[in-house]
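Input set for joint prediction.
Command: fold jointly, output tokens.
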Amino acid sequence: MKRKLLSALPYIVLGVSSLPFFIMYSWLLMNSFSERVSFGFIPKGLTLENWSFLWAPIEWGLERTTIWRFLLNTILYAGGIAILQLVVCTLAAYAISRMEFRGKTLVLGLQLLLRAFPGVLLLIGTFFVLLYLRLLYTIPGVVLARMAMEIPFGVWVMKGFFDGVPWSVEWAALVDGCSRFGAWRQVVFPLVKPGLLAVSLFGFLAGWEDFIFAYILLPGETKVLSVLIQGLVATEVIDYGYLAAMSLFYMLPALIFFLLAQRALTRVAIATVRA
Amino acid sequence: MEVTLEELSKWFGQVKAVSNLSLKIEDGEFVALLGPSGCGKTTTLLMIAGIYKPTSGRIYFGDRVVNDLPPKDRKIGMVFQDYALYPHMTVLQNIAFPLKLQRVPRKVREERAREAAELVQIEELLDRRPSQLSGGQQQRVALARALVKEPDILLLDEPLSNLDAKLRITMRAELKRLQKELGITTIFVTHDQLEALTMADRIAVLDRGELQQFSTPDELYNSPSNLFVAGFIGTPPMNFIGASLERLASEVFLVNEVLRLRLPEELARRVATSMSASAQLVLGIRPEDVAIAQEGELEGEIQVLEPLGRDLLVTISLGSSGTQGPTIKVLAPPTLRAAMGDKVKLQLDMGRIHLFDKATGEAL
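tokens >
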């Protein structure tokens, strides 16, 4: 009897600790499809009315804008961060992994330190930097700002992948007839693809979930989904159903992207050469 | 294609990896760069390949200085110690890669890749990935990849060190045969002196970045030019005994606490002119040039007997009872009747002794 209890213990613990999440998500789900909810749980009346933002413009007093506009903004924002991060981190990581230069240890150490640093503290400073660069209130500007916060992580991950490609394989490519860049493109790049996928994935998600940067550094008209949802909450009467539906809509693309990338990540076969 | 190294040096920061190396390798020669770990042989090879830039000195391919020529324009093929196969390509793609970079049309390059694969006998492995191959197979793929573009020079970095003992012996003969058949100038790096002796036409022995001697295996074995080469080449290694010179009338003797050897005339003459009266010398003699006999110039006591199958390796402590002399190793026929503790007499083949100046290490 005791044995059974002990083996069931992990399940019990995990079950209890995941219960809040389960409750939260099912609340979201149920609220989005029902007219009213009593006791916060039991749905009353199934309806698709809450999802009206998919076909009808959202009404904010005098404004009428469709959700698709905001979706586009969010995609541009998150996508921009992902791509820019990919380019910057990959190039930096390659240099750090492959080359010896003065201050290398310092740079690496800083990456670790910056990762722990809360980017929000830099918000005011960033505001002014973007202002002077005339990038304030533009999507490129806020993409740059947000993406900079993700660089340490990206560099660290990519450096790990580059370290995993032995010097001799690059040299072999040079001897076989590649230029330095050709060796990188033909030999090193295919071997670090999982890393690239991981970095772009995290970059995209970081951008997708970001609120504060988009809120402060973008003008009122240019909203991303997170800001939009926050805006809805700030009205006097909160339509929970509408809110829940929009929240689910906000979650979905990120979820799908993550699932797709995960499948691609596991499908990439990294053949390690036996020494 | 001849390769000439002229006063080549390579510094890594404060560390001198290669020091004023000068060599001339003839077309079609099979040359070994031999030496212990850290002697600069791989660094030299990488400079010849163009992967490292020399700090000073020049490298010539034929008449042309190639110091600034990138690896891809040097017409070389290289096999790395860990083979460096491209894990994301099949064997066929690996071998054909150099041709793909030369923009050889697909049909032609696959054909040539197959030919190269046949040369090293791996035709049936063409669709596999490197991770699915054994060490020996990977090495042959690397070799095929190096040869497929018909290079002027073939460079091999410790090609046999990752193979098991038996395969090593097979591949030694294979590589030598292949090289002779193709006639490509080949330079290979190894720390295994036996490998170098069996495969190379000439061997460059390096120690701590400096060239010790560059000759045929025969000459290195029989006429080493310094202590390092003498002790490095040959298994079991040469015995070294410290002694000093003594002149008595017209004769020259080698003396230490356990021996008094009269030098043969020719040697005596050579030594007398170059050394001062009481110089310190090192006597070198190979284990196979000492015989346990009834009479001899030396006597000693047997310490250890190691049967090697074909020979018996005997460790003997020199000196008559009471004196603790230097220890030497002697190769005796396996039929020798002896036991530990036996007192024996040793006969030296005086025509095969080597003398070195203790101070400089140079041969006399």
